[in-house]
Amino acid sequence: HMQGQSQGPDIFFQCVEAANPAYESLADLFEKKAKLVEEKTGHSYALYAYEGHPEATHVIVVMGSGAVTCSETAAYLIKERGLKDGALK
């Protein structure tokens, strides 16, 4: 519900639901465009990426700026302590 609007919460919710098809197709569109970028530049982009031990017993799921720190920490724990860790970002 938004304050200061003349529409009730039921109408607001219907408007939000009407926008769902655009969001539902976004992942497919991103992957198609990412493939085009990879063909032209050689650099690949993905919706998510896993870094870490292939048989990880502990995995952190993270997004945003903390993803780099988590990936580096997982690499450190694998190399220095022999743990089976990973990061899904």
Topology diagram in text:
Layout: H1 9-18, H2 20-24, H3 26-41, E1 50-52, E2 58-61, H4 66-81, E3 85-88
Parallel strand pairs: 2-3
Antiparallel strand pairs: 1-3
Structure description:
A three-stranded mixed sheet has the order 1-3-2, covered by helices on one side. It has helices at residues 9-18, 20-24, 26-41, 66-81; strands at 50-52, 58-61, 85-88. The chain is an alpha+beta fold. The two termini are 32 Å apart. Helix 4 (66-81) links the parallel strand 2 (58-61) and strand 3. 8% of the residues are buried. The chain is built from four helices and three strands; from the N terminus they run αααββαβ.
* % residues in beta strands: 5-15%
Low-pLDDT stretches: none
Total count of strands: 3
Our measurement of the CA-to-CA distance between the termini, rounded to an integer number of angstroms, reads 32 Å
Kindly provide the radius of gyration, computed on alpha-carbon positions and rounded to a whole number of angstroms: 20 Å
Question: Structural class, from secondary structure content?
Answer: alpha+beta
Mean pLDDT: 92
Sketch the major β-sheet.
3 strands, mixed
Helix residue percentage: 40-55%
Summarize the helix and strand pattern as letters.
Answer: HHHEEHE
Q: Overall 3D geometry? A: flat
Task: Strand order, main sheet: write it out.
Answer: 1-3-2
User: How many helices?
Assistant: 4
